[in-house]
Design a protein that fits this description.
CATH architecture: Roll
CATH superfamily: Hypothetical protein
Number of domains: 1
Distance between the termini: 30 Å
Number of strands: 7
CATH class: Mainly Beta
Order of helices and strands: EHEHEEEEE
Shape: globular
CATH topology: Archaeosine Trna-guanine Transglycosylase, Chain: A, domain 4
Number of helices: 2
Helix content: 10-25%
Length: about 100
Amino acid sequence: MERITTTIKREWLREIVARRKKIEYRELKPYWTHRLNAVSVPFELRLINGMAENAPEVTVVVRHIRRNSRAHQYELHLGKIVKVKHWNRRTEMPSL
């Protein structure tokens, strides 16, 4: 399965891992248009919080992409969580 890797703020990573956030939003810009046109749905979206070697990350399956021209953003509809690294689900904080 194809994969896109990008960064995410910790508060949104926390919500995705807890399954409270089902849609990830990205700006409707040429950068994201090019990246999303290069993959076919479904694909894996790897979201990393930071650049450190042990930065928290989650990999989820994107099952649908919606282009919202009115809000000027892409809506990435998240499915199954494939992998969670360096994150404690019980405390909802990075694992040390």
